[in-house]
Design brief:
39% of the residues lie in helices and 14% in strands.
Amino acid sequence: MTYQAAFRCIDAGCSGQWPLDSVMYRCPRCDDLLEVVHDLEPLRARSAGEWKALFDQRFMTTRWPHGSGVWGKKEWVAPHVADENVVSFFEGGTNLFWANRYGQQIGLDDLWIKLCGNSHTGSFKDLGMTVLVSTVKQMIADGKDIKAVACASTGDTSAALAAYCAAADIPAVVILPRGKITTAQLVQPLANGARVLAVDTDFDGCMKLVTQLAEDPSVYLANSMNSLRIEGQKTVSIEMVQQFDWNPPDWVIIPGGNLGNVSALGRGFEMLLELGLIDRRPRICVAQAAVASPLYASYQSGFDHFEPVTAGDTLASAIRIGDPVSRKKAIRTLQAFDGVVEQATEQELADTAARADLTGTFCCPHTGVALAALEKLVARGEIERHHKTVVVSTASGLKFSDFKVGYHDGSLSQVPEPRFANRPIEIANDFDEVLRAVHGAK
């Protein structure tokens, strides 16, 4: 069976399709964003039950490349890439953590956290980057003159791009906002040999620069405006349904910055619906930091208009984006999924992350934003106690140790009163004092 996919403009009134090996990121006719569309008829030759059985048979095996959570769904994601050109660290297959203790504290019986940070470079960006870099490797094998792959980043995208390009032996260029990402995030692209440019601007400024750079057809753009990234990231929704024995959750909460991840979730669920593997859509909530929340403001107006903002300083640095590229896709997804948008202040995101950590998690600040939004939805009754709810944790908390240390030692200027701070007890080298301290913990 031959499976096919192509680029298409997201504007339904704009016709035309282009091959996935085209060096293009916007519609050449109307300049709108592109999306990847699959020819569904060959896919329907397999029944829903047969697709479930095939995906279950492949899941987390060591068979190349299908053991990957992304490439195990290759026919639904990137059928144009030959197996020998797949660049993979067996990404995906991440844990759905049953956050029962935390859920009980906030009034939920069926709360789960999808730990996308349990991945090679520590974030969900690996899911999209494996598809993009594999496509570039395929293009080079087919004779295309691609000299480098470039991205603008607040940290996680650059780490994923650098690692996958290093494995593929393809040069990577990363443009970062100087002084606005953590040391742990900066060191990843450096360690993997990327050419890192630290620019005196914010992410939106970096995005403008890399978009200009990608006008050179030999420099391939790796940001989420490249819809190949979305194809890998959509496997988050497919995978969570698979982990629930092919039943969709009632709610999914996800942090939103450049907003590609929101449309990716929708793409995965829609494909499951179209091919009969599920019979309903979950509701989706996008969570934004209050100082970088243009989608929240647009939602408040019923999406009648959208105004970019200058994003303020936030602990959730990866979503410090005031002019998100994928806003049209995100709004379309939210409208289709009866979605909502919430926001969280710096105090809320930090305290909520710390509260969840006290039940065994180790949340990145962006997951803190999503959890704070979750608590608001539960408090006002939109999410009910029995609803199966999944919070997408986008990155490992280990990449944000400065955030964790600062919260607990009280040095974060954005969080003057950390409610759940836990500080070391300094005592003398005396057993009786140790014993008293231990008993005091009971």
